[in-house]
Design a protein that fits this description.
By secondary structure, the chain is mostly helical. Helices cover about 75% and strands about 0% of the residues.
Length: about 150
């Protein structure tokens, strides 16, 4: 009686997507191109273009991170639910990307402000973020993405 009051259990069902990893590789290529454009604009001293490209980078990164979270991590956790070592690895990747995301978004929020100068500190932080993202991309592609199988 009154079964409509019962709360239905939420079940995350993430289907396998044969094109997902290919899309993520393309995302990575696009991110690298945007970073290269930022570096070139910095060399040219075009602050306005740098800030515009930083905003573009933020949009691209956040979209990529969100899609990885929704489509990749959820699928992998479900697929490997019985394999503790792999689940730990997936969780480690997921937690580390959240830290990277927080740092990158904070950096981009700060330096996309109109009156924030793109000084030596910006160069240092930008290079550190680019290196961290490059390492992350290689690690994902060589380790995490290989787990996405069907």
């Amino acid at each position: 009686m009154f079964s409509f009051f019962k709360k239905k259990k939420s079940k995350i069902d993430v289907p396998y997507d044969t094109k997902l990893i290919k899309k993520f590789h393309k995302d990575h290529e696009k991110l690298i191109k945007t970073v290269t454009k930022i570096s070139n604009a910095m060399e040219e001293g075009d602050t306005k273009k740098v800030k515009s490209l930083l905003s573009q980078l933020k949009t691209e990164l956040l979209g990529h991170f969100m899609e990885e979270d929704i489509k990749l991590y959820r699928y992998l956790k479900k697929y490997y639910v019985e394999e503790d070592d792999i689940t730990k690895t997936i969780t480690m990747f997921e937690e580390s990307i959240k830290d990277i995301q927080k740092d990158v978004v904070s950096f981009l929020d700060h330096y996309t402000k109109e009156n924030t100068p793109l000084d030596k500190k910006f160069d240092e932080q930008f290079n550190a973020i680019v290196n961290a993202l490059g390492t992350r991309i290689r690690t994902e592609e060589n380790n995490l993405y290989t787990l996405y199988i069907h």
